Amino acid sequence: MTYLDFEKPLADIEGKAEELRNMAEKDKAVDVEKEAAALDKKAGALLKELYGSLDPWRKAQVARHPERPHCSDYIAALFTEYTPLAGDRAFGDDHAVMGGLARFNDRPCVVIGHEKGNDTKSRIERNFGMARPEGYRKAIRLMDMADRFNLPVITLVDTPGAYPGKGAEERGQSEAIARSTEKCLQIGVPLISVIIGEGGSGGAVAFATANRILMLEHSIYSVISPEGCASILWKDAEKMREAAEALRLTAQDLKKLGIIDGIVAEPVGGAQRDPRKAMEAVGKDIAAALKDMESKDRKALIADRRRKFLDMGKKGLS
């Protein structure tokens, strides 16, 4: 387990319990289970305390935890017969965006998502989840196909933002993001988006202009990262805590503001503590959202989506 900065006291307690059990493994005559169980109980209480009162900056840290389940994990756990499709038919294939045909609860669908990778090699290959123009154009191609064959679209968002490199800008990054966002508004099939980690800037909106937007309890969704905001406003990236507070980037704040539709509960300690349970919860909420839209025809789905985004900003924090 990788521990975050604020989890250091928890790491000490769990580390001691593990040491005791390792000692007992080496010497069967030593009985440490009582002491280890007491430490486990103490660690459990501390875990609940820590995660029961996370501030926005700590939530940002949890959203970026390297051991949180990623897009590929959700696809493997929740979808069957997944057939990946590659390329934008114009330039190439972007490995930061994965997508294709699949079945969700035995219902044919299209699934699209950002993939960050889970080790050094795969993170470099996936560009840390930062999509290039060809990634968004691939998503547009998949959404067009879903619309043509009347397949619901499910998107899994986990990106710090679109890739800002020179090549991406030369190939029309902003235009590709705008076209992807536009395509989300045009398709006449159910579109459900789940923010599973980071929802960063337009790179996230391009997949999340949906009929239903769900967020995991400890994920974040914002126009800019806390560090980027702090650098612009205060010329000091170290003021990211203040920026995180001001950005209202947590699922709880965004639900109050009417930006998202639902919050998916995470296991105590975050999705990284029990990925299977977290992914099952996401699956249940996606199924409920799909069922809610079953009776809506093409025109109603498009109108519902457009109205949702036109109405954003009318709610305020109490």
CATH topology of the largest domain: the name is 2-enoyl-CoA Hydratase, Chain A, domain 1
Total strand count, please? Answer: 8
Q: How far apart lie the N and C ends?
A: 38 Å
- How much is the radius of gyration in Å? 21 Å
Secondary-structure-based class equals: alpha/beta
Count of DSSP-assigned helices: 14
Percent of residues in β-strands: 15-25%
- Main pleated-sheet profile: 8 strands, mixed
Integer average pLDDT: 93
Helix percent band? 40-55%
What is the oligomer described by this structure? single chain
Shape: globular
Q: Can you tell me the CATH architecture of the largest domain? A: Alpha-Beta Complex
Find the CATH superfamily of the largest domain. 2-enoyl-CoA Hydratase, Chain A, domain 1
Brief characterization of the structure:
The chain has 318 residues and is of the alpha/beta class. The chain is 49% helix and 16% strand. Strands 1, 2, 3, 4, 5, 6, 7 and 8 form an eight-stranded mixed beta sheet that branches.
What does this structure look like?
The structure is a single chain. With 318 residues, the chain is an alpha/beta fold. It folds into two domains: 5-53; 60-310, 2-enoyl-CoA Hydratase, Chain A, domain 1. Helix content is 49%, strand content 16%. It contains 14 helices and eight strands. The chain has helices at residues 8-26, 33-51, 56-63, 71-78, 120-125, 133-148, 166-170, 173-186, 201-208, 226-233, 240-247, 251-256, 275-292, 298-310, and strands spanning 79-84, 97-104, 107-114, 153-159, 191-200, 212-216, 220-222, 262-264. Strands 1, 2, 3, 4, 5, 6, 7 and 8 form an eight-stranded mixed β-sheet that branches. Strand 5 (191-200), helix 9 (201-208) and strand 6 (212-216) form a beta-alpha-beta unit. The chain is globular and about 70 Å long. The mean pLDDT is 93.
